[in-house]
């Protein structure tokens, strides 16, 4: 039986706009973008140019510090722009999607017959390694360093966050395959943290159940309560949504960046789950589902606490499985509002 860890400290912020358990398919986005800022500490080296045709899984750039860490296109199509900012900083690489998608064929392999180094090599070549983070520092993991343990959080306790147990229905084999791949890459244990209210059936790993308010679902909090990191130790962490990407890859031999995204917030007409592809433009996901208003609205890729403010015609960031739309809040005119106790605000 799985361990249950009960946490008392924290706070669940009661925001409006929780998604109903219903999934709809988003229309194909015309444009997709890979944004280097989504990956901390990366110095990107772009290896494509405008006019190049790429398949889903074709490398678009790599990390100058670690050339083996590649970043691939989520879709097939034409590279239409490599947008740069001040001092030629790479802002994004934009791909215009093909009507019919083509994929790089990495070949299906028998995961049980691969060594840990071979699994790691496949994940690196597929461009999925950037989704593996290391602690300390929460940066892309160093593939040359073997982790003590690997931690996966299958519970996002942030406001209005997607329910992984619901989203992963029908993908149980992919999730298990992703966990099996992670087991190959460590001599330690793979821990999966879940909510006591929403569990997923898995085997071969350590399942730990958590109960309590946010941030009980944060992987850092879970590490502290399961097996704290000591000086000199390194552990790897992943979101359960990213484990699905790895599992799909080993089950199909191709990179499939499909995501089911929770469209949330008080400014959404019908908060719901939408099936799309990571990096898609927001208009393809939101459609006419945003309320008409005479005040400013804030569009967030992610949740209200740790998400990224984006333009309404911006893109779903690669690591995110949630979109949030809320009032900007710049129309309030309260005298000394910042200094008042706010007893009527919560």
From TrEMBL:
<dbReference type="InterPro" id="IPR008703">
    <property type="entry name" value="NqrA"/>
</dbReference>
<dbReference type="InterPro" id="IPR056147">
    <property type="entry name" value="NQRA_N"/>
</dbReference>
<dbReference type="InterPro" id="IPR022615">
    <property type="entry name" value="NqrA_C_domain"/>
</dbReference>
<keyword id="KW-0830">Ubiquinone</keyword>
<keyword id="KW-1278">Translocase</keyword>
<dbReference type="GO" id="GO:0016655">
    <property type="term" value="F:oxidoreductase activity, acting on NAD(P)H, quinone or similar compound as acceptor"/>
</dbReference>
<keyword id="KW-0520">NAD</keyword>
<keyword id="KW-0813">Transport</keyword>
<keyword id="KW-0406">Ion transport</keyword>
<dbReference type="InterPro" id="IPR056148">
    <property type="entry name" value="NQRA_2nd"/>
</dbReference>
<feature type="domain" description="NqrA second alpha/beta">
    <location>
        <begin position="115"/>
        <end position="255"/>
    </location>
</feature>
<keyword id="KW-0739">Sodium transport</keyword>
<feature type="domain" description="NqrA N-terminal barrel-sandwich hybrid">
    <location>
        <begin position="5"/>
        <end position="97"/>
    </location>
</feature>
<protein>
    <submittedName>
        <fullName>NADH:ubiquinone reductase (Na(+)-transporting) subunit A</fullName>
    </submittedName>
</protein>
<dbReference type="Pfam" id="PF05896">
    <property type="entry name" value="NQRA_N"/>
</dbReference>
<dbReference type="Pfam" id="PF24836">
    <property type="entry name" value="NQRA_2nd"/>
</dbReference>
<dbReference type="InterPro" id="IPR011053">
    <property type="entry name" value="Single_hybrid_motif"/>
</dbReference>
<dbReference type="GO" id="GO:0006814">
    <property type="term" value="P:sodium ion transport"/>
</dbReference>
<keyword id="KW-0915">Sodium</keyword>
<dbReference type="Pfam" id="PF11973">
    <property type="entry name" value="NQRA_SLBB"/>
</dbReference>
<feature type="domain" description="Na(+)-translocating NADH-quinone reductase subunit A C-terminal">
    <location>
        <begin position="260"/>
        <end position="310"/>
    </location>
</feature>
């Amino acid at each position: 039986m799985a361990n249950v860890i009960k946490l008392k400290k924290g706070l669940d912020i009661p925001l409006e706009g929780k998604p109903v358990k219903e999934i709809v398919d988003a229309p194909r986005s015309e444009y997709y973008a890979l944004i280097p800022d989504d990956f901390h500490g990366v110095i990107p080296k772009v290896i494509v140019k405008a006019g190049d045709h790429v398949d889903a899984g074709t490398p678009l750039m790599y990390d100058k510090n670690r050339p083996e860490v590649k970043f691939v296109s989520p879709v097939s199509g034409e590279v239409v722009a490599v947008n740069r900012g001040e001092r030629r900083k790479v802002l994004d690489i934009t791909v215009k999607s093909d009507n019919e998608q083509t994929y790089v064929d990495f070949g299906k392999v028998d995961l049980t017959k691969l060594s840990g180094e071979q699994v790691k090599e496949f994940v690196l070549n597929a461009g999925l390694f950037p989704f593996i983070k290391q602690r300390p520092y929460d940066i892309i993991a160093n593939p040359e360093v073997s982790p003590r343990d690997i931690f996966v959080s299958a519970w996002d306790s942030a406001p209005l966050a997607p329910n992984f147990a619901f989203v992963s229905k029908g993908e149980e084999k992919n999730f298990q395959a992703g966990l099996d791949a992670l087991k190959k890459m460590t001599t330690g244990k793979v821990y999966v943290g879940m909510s006591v209210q929403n569990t997923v059936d898995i085997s071969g790993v350590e399942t730990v159940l958590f109960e309590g308010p946010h941030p009980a679902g944060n992987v850092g909090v879970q590490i502290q309560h399961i097996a704290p990191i000591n000086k000199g130790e390194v552990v790897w962490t992943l979101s359960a949504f990213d484990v699905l990407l790895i599992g799909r890859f080993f089950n199909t031999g191709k990179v499939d960046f499909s995501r089911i995204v929770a469209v949330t917030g008080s400014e959404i007409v019908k908060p719901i789950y939408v099936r799309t592809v990571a990096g898609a433009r927001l208009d393809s996901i939101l459609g006419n589902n945003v309320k008409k208003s005479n005040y400013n609205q804030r569009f967030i890729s992610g949740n209200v606490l740790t998400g990224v403010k984006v333009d309404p015609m911006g893109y779903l960031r690669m690591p995110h499985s949630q979109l949030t739309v809320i009032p900007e809040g710049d129309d309030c005119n309260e005298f000394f509002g910042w200094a008042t106790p706010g007893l009527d605000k919560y």
